[in-house]
């Protein structure tokens, strides 16, 4: 008798989401305080959340002014949207951390 389960059997149950969609969802993105960092972050966010208002971005430099955090609050419509946005942000060369 084979009791091993395939990968699809192990992942067949959808994970319950703790977020109700649609929902306002803040994302904090940190990177080097370099020219173009905030604009690059906004461009990526707009690709995944076209209704995002760039004027709502909250910018905060680190105490030594070497890093900059951008908090972008989007209207999240699905888990897939958030996953795609996190993937795009974390793969961007100017981004160090996404929370």
TrEMBL record:
Organism superkingdom: Bacteria
HAMAP family hit by this protein: UPF0250 (MF_00659)
Family of the protein in this entry: Belongs to the UPF0250 family.
Name of this protein: UPF0250 protein THIARS_40170
